[in-house]
Write a structure and sequence with these properties.
Radius of gyration: 40 Å
Number of strands: 3
Helix content: 55-70%
Shape: elongated
Distance between the termini: 61 Å
Strand content: under 5%
C-alpha cells in the first residue's frame, strides 16, 4: 500500500473509531445495553470496519483513491449496521427515560464526557510534547562542540615578535642595533645582512653563509677584522653593527618595525631548525619526528631505540644518521629531520607544538601594532581607521581617501608629521601607529583575530552528541582536522546580533540587517493594521446597519482571515511593488530604492495579512461590551462618539490587544509574502528607512536551512531563538498594556 493511501486509510479509521465510540454509547443505552460496552463496540467497529475494506480494495484494485474511499465507506457502513441491527433489549417507554433506562443514559453521557476529556488531555500532551521537541531541536542546534581551525595560529604571530620600544620612525638610531641584538635571533640577523646589505635572494643564502664577509659584502662597509670571518660565524652584535653601518636611519627604522611584527610564516627553515634546537628538549623533538614524519604518536611512551634507518624507512635522513639509535638523536639532528621531511604548513605546526608561545592578550600595544603592520593588508588597515577611528559611514569612504589626516582625524591622535599627508598615501607602519594611538588593546586584538588569525569552524556537533559522544568527536576531529581545536560554542551571542551577514562564513555571520529589517517591517505593520482594523471594527459594530452590503462585507472579512499568506504576497507584489512603485520606492520624496521592493511594501503587505484578524477580534471585543454601559453614557448626555471613545473602547481594549497579539505573532514569522514582495535573502548592509531594500529573519532562516553546511543550520537555529525572543518581547509589551487596562477597568 502506498504511504499516502495508508495514512489516509488509518486517519479515517481512527476518526470513525472515535465517532463510533462517541455515538454508540447513547444508542446502546437506549437499546438496553451497557453504554461502556457500546462505546467499545462502536470504536472497534469503526476501526476494523474501515481497515478491512481498505485492505480488500488494495488487494483487488490497488488504486490509492479507492483504498481511502473503501476505508471511509466501510467504516460508515459497519457503524450503520451496528446501530440498526443491534436488537433492543429494553425499549424506552414514555418521552423521558426513567429507572434503569435513566441510569444508562447518565452513564452514556459520562462515558462520552470521559472520552472527550481523554482526547483533550491527549491533545494537550501531544501539543506540549511537540513544543518541547521543537524547543529541544532548536537548542540542540544552538549550543555544542565545534572544531575551530585558524588560518594563522595566534602563536605564529607572537613567536618572534617583540616590543619595538617606540612608534614607527621614532626609535633612536643608536638604540636600534641593541634592540635587534636583544630581540632578533642570531640566524635571522645573519640573514638580514645577506638580504638588506648584500641584496642576496633567499635561495643563495646557504651558499653565501659559508663565505667570508669580504666576499659577500664586497663594496660595502665592514670592519677590517671581520674580512675573513664567514657570515655564518658572525656574532649577533657584529651582524647588527653591519646593518647599522650600511643602512640609513630610515632603513633601520623600517627594519626594526618589520622585524618586531614578523610572523612564523616569514621565518626561514634555517632559523626554524635553530629555534627548535634551542627551545625544545631532545625527547620532545624525537616524539615530534615520530608523530609528524613517521605517523607514530608516543605522547608518554619511550622513544624507540631502533636505528634511524629502520624507524624512518622511506623518509629523508642524512646517511651519517642511518645507524644512530633514534632515542639518541640530538636536538639539532631531530630538528633537521623535521625540516627535511615536513611540508611548510606541517613544519610550522610542529614548531608551535614544540615551542612555547605567548597569547595575544600578553602583548603590549606597541607589539600588537607591529604585528598588525606586518600582517594586515594596507587596505584593511585603512578600512579600520575609517570605521573604528574616524567613525565614517561606509558610503563616505571613497570621498575621504584623498583628505589630509588633520581633516579626516580631527580630534584624534596621530603623528604631527603626518598632519598634511593624504590618507591614501600612508603606509602600513603609519596606519598601524594611528590604530595603536586611538584603539585599546581589545580592539587591536579583535582586528588581528578577524583579519589575520581568522578562526573558522570546520565542523560542528549538536549539544546532545557533544555531551554523549565526546570521545568519538575528539577522535573524529584528530583524524579529519588535526590542526583544529575543540571549543564549546553558543551560536547566539552579542556578535551574532550586531554583525552584518556573511554568506561565505557561517561561523562569522550575524543577523543585524535581518533583525533591523524585521523590526522596521513589524513596526509599519502595526502602525497600519491596528488603527485601520480597530476603526473598521468600530464602524461595523457601532455605525453600520444590517444592510445586505454590510453583510457581504462582513462575510468577506471572515473569509479573508483564512486566505493563505502567499495570496497576500501576490496582492502586495501587484499593488505595492508595481502599481504604487513611485510611492513605495520613495521616488515621490526624491530618494529611496530603485524599485518598490522596500520595507514599506513589506509592511503594507503584512498589514493586509493581519487586518482581517484584528477586525474580527476587535468586533468580538466591542460586541462583548454591555449595552447598559452605552445606555448609561447616553443617559448622561454623551454623544455616540464620546460613548465609543471614553467607554466602549477602553472596556474593549484588553480583548482588542489580545487579538492584536495573535495577529502580530502570525505576521512576524511570515516568509512567503516577503519573498514575493522582493525580500533579499542576503543583504550585508542595514536598512536605512522605509524606502530601503530589506531582508528579515524569516527569510534568513529559510535560506540558511536550505544550505548544505551544518554550520548554517546552527546559525538558523540561533536566528530562530532570536525571532522567538523578539516575538515574546513584543507580545509581553501588549500583554502588560492589556493587564494594566484590565486593572483600571476593574
Amino acid at each position: 500500500m502506498d504511504r499516502l493511501a495508508f495514512f489516509g486509510a488509518v486517519f479515517f479509521s481512527l476518526i470513525l473509531a472515535l465517532n463510533g465510540g462517541m455515538s454508540s454509547a447513547p444508542i446502546a443505552a437506549r437499546k438496553g445495553y451497557s453504554p461502556r460496552l457500546g462505546a467499545l463496540a462502536g470504536a472497534l467497529t469503526g476501526l476494523f470496519g474501515s481497515l478491512i475494506p481498505a485492505l480488500v480494495v488494495r488487494q483487488v484494485s490497488g488504486a490509492e483513491a479507492l483504498v481511502v474511499l473503501g476505508a471511509l465507506a466501510g467504516g460508515i457502513g459497519a457503524l450503520t449496521l451496528l446501530w440498526r441491527l443491534a436488537p433492543s433489549r429494553d425499549a424506552q417507554r414514555g418521552v423521558l427515560p426513567s429507572g434503569a433506562s435513566l441510569q444508562r443514559n447518565i452513564v452514556a453521557r459520562h462515558t462520552r464526557g470521559a472520552i472527550a476529556q481523554t482526547l483533550f488531555v491527549l491533545s494537550i500532551a501531544v501539543a506540549l510534547l511537540a513544543l518541547a521537541t521543537l524547543l529541544w531541536t532548536i537548542i540542540n542546534k544552538t549550543v555544542g562542540l565545534t572544531a575551530v581551525q585558524y588560518n594563522v595560529e595566534p602563536g605564529a604571530l607572537t613567536l618572534t615578535s617583540f616590543d619595538p620600544g617606540a612608534a614607527p620612525g621614532e626609535a633612536a638610531p643608536e638604540d636600534i642595533p641593541t634592540l635587534l641584538v636583544e630581540n632578533v635571533h642570531p640566524v635571522r640577523l645573519r640573514e638580514l645582512v645577506l638580504e638588506q646589505v648584500a641584496g642576496a635572494k633567499p635561495k643563495a643564502w646557504p651558499e653565501l653563509l659559508d663565505q667570508p664577509v669580504s666576499v659577500v659584502l664586497e663594496g660595502h662597509d665592514f670592519p677590517a677584522d671581520l674580512a675573513e670571518t664567514p657570515v655564518s660565524a658572525l656574532e649577533p652584535a657584529q651582524a647588527a653593527d653591519l646593518l647599522a653601518r650600511n643602512l640609513d636611519a630610515e632603513g633601520l627604522q623600517v627594519l626594526l618595525a618589520s622585524e618586531a611584527g614578523r610572523a612564523l610564516s616569514m621565518m626561514s627553515e634555517a632559523e626554524i631548525a635553530a629555534r627548535l634546537a634551542e627551545g625544545a628538549s631532545a625527547g620532545r623533538l624525537q616524539r615530534l619526528a615520530l608523530a609528524r614524519v613517521a605517523g607514530v604518536r608516543m605522547d608518554d611512551g619511550e622513544v624507540p631505540s631502533e636505528p634511524v634507518a629502520q624507524v624512518l624507512d622511506g623518509y629523508t635522513y642524512p646517511e651519517a644518521l642511518a645507524d644512530t639509535p633514534f632515542n639518541q638523536l640530538t636536538v639539532a639532528e631531530s630538528a633537521a629531520l623535521l625540516v627535511a621531511n615536513l611540508e611548510r604548513a606541517d613544519l610550522e605546526d610542529a614548531v608551535l607544538d614544540a615551542l612555547d608561545t605567548r597569547e595575544l592578550d600578553d602583548l603590549s600595544e606597541r607589539e600588537l601594532g607591529a604585528i598588525t603592520a606586518a600582517n594586515v593588508r594596507k587596505a584593511l588597515l585603512r578600512v579600520a581607521i575609517l570605521k573604528d577611528v574616524a567613525g565614517a559611514a561606509e558610503s563616505t569612504w571613497p570621498d575621504l581617501s584623498g583628505q589630509p589626516l588633520n581633516v579626516l582625524l580631527k580630534g584624534k591622535d596621530f603623528p604631527a608629521a603626518l598632519a598634511e599627508t593624504s590618507f591614501s598615501q600612508i603606509d602600513e607602519q603609519q596606519a598601524a601607529d594611528i590604530l595603536v594611538r586611538n584603539l585599546d588593546r581589545d580592539a587591536l586584538i579583535t582586528l588581528l583575530m578577524n583579519e589575520v588569525v581568522q578562526a573558522q569552524v570546520v565542523k560542528s556537533w549538536p549539544l546532545w552528541n557533544s555531551l554523549t559522544e565526546r570521545s568519538a568527536i575528539e577522535a573524529d576531529q584528530q583524524a579529519r582536522f588535526p590542526r583544529a581545536e575543540l571549543q564549546w560554542r553558543s551560536w547566539v551571542s552579542a556578535d551574532f546580533l550586531t554583525s552584518p551577514l556573511d554568506p561565505r562564513k557561517p561561523d562569522m555571520t550575524g543577523i543585524r540587517p535581518a533583525l533591523i529589517g524585521s523590526l522596521l517591517i513589524i513596526a509599519i505593520t502595526i502602525l497600519v493594521a491596528f488603527p485601520v482594523g480597530v476603526g473598521a471594527a468600530i464602524y461595523l459594530e457601532e455605525y453600520a446597519g444590517r444592510s445586505r452590503l454590510n453583510q457581504i462585507i462582513q462575510t468577506n472579512i471572515n473569509n479573508l482571515a483564512g486566505v493563505p499568506s502567499i495570496i497576500y504576497g501576490m496582492l502586495g507584489l501587484a499593488i505595492f511593488v508595481r502599481s504604487l512603485e513611485a510611492f513605495t520606492s520613495g521616488r515621490v520624496v526624491g530618494g529611496g530604492a530603485a524599485n518598490g521592493r522596500t520595507v514599506l511594501s513589506a509592511g503594507f503587505t503584512l498589514a493586509l495579512l493581519i487586518l482581517p484578524l484584528i477586525i474580527i477580534n476587535a468586533q468580538e471585543a466591542i460586541r462583548a461590551v454591555p449595552g447598559s454601559l452605552r445606555q448609561a453614557s447616553y443617559g448622561l448626555g454623551a454623544t455616540k462618539w464620546q460613548t465609543i471613545w471614553h467607554h466602549v473602547l477602553p472596556y474593549a481594549m484588553p480583548g482588542i490587544l489580545t487579538g492584536t497579539i495573535l495577529a502580530i505573532s502570525r505576521a512576524i514569522g511570515e516568509t512567503a509574502p516577503l519573498i514575493l514582495v522582493g525580500g533579499a535573502t542576503y543583504l550585508t548592509r542595514d536598512p536605512e528607512g522605509p524606502f530601503s531594500i530589506f531582508t528579515a529573519l524569516p527569510l534568513l532562516i529559510y535560506r540558511w536551512t536550505t544550505l548544505p553546511q551544518d554550520e548554517f543550520r546552527h546559525a538558523a537555529a540561533a536566528a530562530i531563538i532570536v525571532l522567538l525572543v523578539m516575538l515574546i518581547s513584543l507580545n509581553s509589551i501588549a500583554i502588560i498594556l492589556r493587564n494594566r487596562l484590565s486593572r483600571r477597568l476593574s
